[in-house]
Design goal:
Strand order of the largest sheet: 1-9-8-6-5-4-3-2
Number of strands: 11
Radius of gyration: 19 Å
Oligomer: single chain
Helix content: 25-40%
């Protein structure tokens, strides 16, 4: 196997292959992270849906199985304040679905949360000292960022525009993830929420490369070797891949989600806020078609998902994805050979 000429990211992280497994909250397992790391890439453990105890247990499992570098990923959003009117409007919009499924529309709404990076998560970083720490939606408070860097971790974060990439570079990140419009899951946007002006990966990457001093990781729309090579041709030093890993056996993905990915089309996804309140790319389903994709009624992130939980509880038992997120990038149709996470990492990272 040959080596990539640009080794800035592999040397920076201490990995063999310039492949970063995307941190996909809910779908990423410790087994996926371990397999990716052992294959030579950078496995990423997402903390957004893990409690402190769950994150500690996952890191214990990962550290027991591999000594290769690992990435811990965190959201750094500001938690939403009270929005009684927006929540009432959202519940009213969803009420017909409750009635259809035999649920009480006036019942108390369950909470839906994704934890932002705070002192407790920072103490986890200080205890386990992951080699890389990545952030989504910007960077944490300055005092927390100082503590993360003091552990020796390399800090990276997502940018969806050149302005965001410059902002991150000015604040001392070690690398920038240039996240194109094609990427699945939540947009990493933090300086703008204008989804109409978001940039595609292969327009964004070279502009970010020209704008920042640090190496760039391309993300969005890459699911095979052609995409990896194209990203490198445009100046990227590594590629972050998510959707392709969702079809590995290590992924924790519902059967209906896996089936939807297998049948995905190039035009089968859209940016939507109906699942969490923040724009994210998902394959189309009933809720997106009837209430979105982008709804002005959805409460702020991450609270919009609470009112969906009773609906999901009924429909998911029936194998239906009517009210469930189907996170996916636009490249899902390129994923046809189901490989293990290790096989996928080696396949993507093989140089000419």
């Amino acid at each position: 196997m040959g080596q990539w000429q640009d080794r800035r990211i592999t040397d920076l992280f201490g990995i063999e292959l310039p492949i970063v497994q995307a941190p996909m909250a809910g779908a990423t397992t410790s087994e996926m992270v371990i397999a990716t790391c052992e294959a030579g890439g950078l496995g990423s453990l997402p903390g957004a849906l893990l409690s402190i105890e769950q994150m500690r247990a996952a890191l214990d499992q990962i550290r027991a199985a591999t000594r290769k570098p690992v990435n811990c990923n965190f959201f750094v959003h500001v938690e939403a304040g009270p929005e009684p009117q927006r929540h009432q409007a959202w519940q009213s919009a969803l009420a017909p679905y409750y009635t259809e499924l035999g649920l009480d529309p006036s019942a108390p709404v369950p909470s839906s949360a994704r934890a932002p990076f705070d002192d407790a998560y920072c103490r986890i970083v200080e205890e386990y000292r992951p080699e890389v720490v990545s952030f989504h939606f910007g960077l944490p408070r300055a005092e927390l960022l100082v503590r993360v860097k003091a552990t020796g971790a390399k800090v990276i974060a997502s940018a969806t525009t050149v302005a965001e990439a410059r902002w991150l570079d000015e604040r001392g990140v070690d690398a920038v993830i240039a996240m194109g419009f094609e990427a699945g899951g939540h947009r990493g946007s933090f300086l703008t929420q204008d989804m109409a002006s978001q940039v595609g990966t292969f327009a964004l990457v070279p502009q970010v490369v020209d704008a920042v001093k640090v190496p760039v990781i391309a993300a969005g729309g890459v699911a095979d070797r052609r995409g990896v090579r194209a990203a490198f041709a445009l100046g990227a030093s590594a590629v972050q891949v998510g959707t392709a890993y969702l079809l590995t056996p290590e992924a924790k993905v519902a059967a209906f989600h896996r089936e939807a990915l297998k049948n995905a089309r190039d035009d089968g996804s859209a940016l939507t806020n109906v699942f969490t309140g923040r724009p994210a790319r998902s394959l189309y389903n009933r809720l997106m078609r009837e209430q979105g994709p982008l709804s002005t009624l959805a409460p702020s992130f991450p609270t919009a998902g609470g009112a969906l939980l009773p609906l999901r509880g009924v429909t998911e038992k029936q194998g239906l994805a009517d009210f469930s997120s189907l996170w996916s990038g636009q490249s899902a149709a390129l994923v046809r050979n189901e490989m293990s996470s290790a096989e996928l990492t080696r396949y993507l990272g093989e140089a000419d």
